[in-house]
Amino acid sequence: MAHLLRTYNAALLRRPMVVQCVTAAVLFGAGDIVAQQAVEGRGKEHDFARTARLAFYGGALFGPAMTKWYQLLNSIKFASPTKGLVYRVWLDQAMLTPVAVAFFYGSMSVLEGKPEEAAYIPTLLRNWAVYIPTQLINFSLVPPHLRFVVVSVVSLFWNTYLSASNASHERAQAEAAAVDQEKLLTVD
Q1: Of the listed ranges 71-75, 79-83, 101-105, 180-184, the one predicted with least confidence
Q2: Mapped to the 3 state alphabet, what secondary structure does 66-87 carry?
Q3: For 76, which of 91, 148, 154, 172 is 20 to 30 Å away at the CA?
Q4: Is the pTM of this model over 0.85?
Q5: If phi over 0 gives left and psi between -120 and 50 gives alpha, with beta otherwise, what is residue 158?
Q6: How would DSSP label each residue in 137-185?
Q7: Which pLDDT belongs to residue 117?
Q8: Is 188 helix (H, G, I), strand (E, B) or coil?
């Protein structure tokens, strides 16, 4: 296991964009698998297209954006470590997160080929509950080249929540549409 971590760390230092994109793709896909199997109990009815969409989002959209974001945050110099911690967490959670949550739901809408009316505010509030403490620890204790990895590991659980939340919202929309259709048929 130690050899695997050393190899991963070396690859991360050599090719951060590629390694972080692959990491994000794997963890977004894994988060969806956990959501479908452990949370939703889908068993053999697993939606592989949904898992592929989330893995694609992680590797092609989230991974590159977050790699550049962490490079930017790590390059900003502050007068003291405490100011650096506070400002990095604030920038991450106040500036990036609202856009990232909207981008996730918008991307899923495009990839699924249907309009999305996501639960933006509840997701954003839950994100802050998870990631503000995570980022306080991350920016204060973790070496810069491993910060994306820490966020990615926490993201495995967060992605499970996002996937389940997105699917739950989809089901609710489908049920509402069915009820509306039934009402129309009853009126006719």
Answers
A1: 180-184
A2: HHHHHHHHHHCCCCCHHHHHHH
A3: 154
A4: no
A5: alpha
A6: HHHHHS-GGGHHHHHHHHHHHHHHHHHHHHHHHHHHHHHHHHHHHHHHH
A7: 66
A8: coil
